[in-house]
Specification:
Blueprint: E1 2-3, E2 10-16, E3 19-24, E4 27-32, E5 50-54, E6 60-64, E7 72-76, E8 79-83, H1 98-110, E9 116-120, H2 126-133, E10 137-142, H3 145-157, E11 165-169, H4 172-182, E12 188-191, E13 196-198, E14 204-206, H5 207-219, E15 228-233, H6 240-250, E16 257-266, E17 273-283
Parallel strand pairs: 1-16, 4-5, 9-10, 9-12, 10-11, 12-15
Antiparallel strand pairs: 2-3, 3-4, 5-6, 7-8, 13-14, 15-17, 16-17
Helix pairs in contact: 1-2
Length: 290
Amino acid sequence: MILAKTWTDYEILECGEGMKKERWGDIILVRPDPQIIWPLKSKDWGEFDAFYHRNRKGGGNWEYRRKIPPSWNIKYDSCTFKIRPTDFKHTGLFPEQAVNWDWCRSKIKLSQGSPKILNLFGYTGAATISAAKAGAQVCHVDAAKGMVTWCRENASFSGLQNAPIRFIVDDCIKFVEREIRRGSLYDGIIMDPPSYGRGSKGEIWQFDRDLWQLLQKCRKILSASPLFFLVNAYTAGISPTIVGNLLREALSDLGGGVTSGEIGLPISDSLNVLPCGLFARWDSQHFSQF
C-alpha cells in the first residue's frame, strides 16, 4: 500500500465503527466509510462541524453543529480544490488520490514538450488540474455535467482558466470510440471507472465485465511512445493484481512495466491506516516509483 501522507490541508483525525473524522482545511466533518470495521477508541466524536447520518433507504443527511460555508477551498501542492458536502456524503475530492497525482505529474515533468493526457471518468478534475499544472494538455471527460462544471471551477481556482484543458461532458466509452474513429492519440491515460454505472440511454457498465474491453479501446488511442497509463478503482472484491494483469495484457506490445497495489490514508495518532481503493500503473520506463 502507498499512502497519501504529504497533505497539510487534510487529515483523518480518528476512525472507528464505520465512521471517520476528517479535517478539511479548518472544517471538521464526520462521514461514513464501510472499510472501517474496527472499534472507536473515544466514547464520542468530540467537536465537529458537520456529521453525515445514513438512513435506511441508503441516502442520508448532514447534521450541522455550526454554520459553515456552502463550499470552501483547500490546497495540495500548487493546486486548489473546491470542497462541498454533498447529499450523498462526498465532498468533491478523494485525498488518497494525491499519490496518483504525484506519480502522473512526475512522468509529465520528465517528458519533452507538452504531452496530451486523457482523463476518463474525471469527476471534479483533481487529476486533470494536477496534470495541467505539470505542463500537460488535458482532455477531461465525465458523463455528469455538474462534475465537469466543478472541474472548471477547480481549474480557475488553480490559475488554469486559460490552460489547454478540454472539458467534455460525454459517456466515456462512446467518447473513446469516437476518438478512435477520429484518429486522436494521447501520450497518457488516466481512468477511474465506477463499479457500476448506467448511461443516458440505459447502457450498463460493470467494472469486472467491461474494463477489459475499455482497456483494449484505449490502447488504440495511445501515441507511438506513450508515457503512462493509470487505472484507479474502488470496486470491492477486485484484487489490484487482477487490474494489473488486465493492464499488462492490454499494453503487452509496448514493453514497459506494470505496478499494482492499494492506496490509503494515514490516521493521525494511530498506527492504523485507511485502505481507499486500488491502482494499476503502466510505465514506459519499465519501472514505477511509488
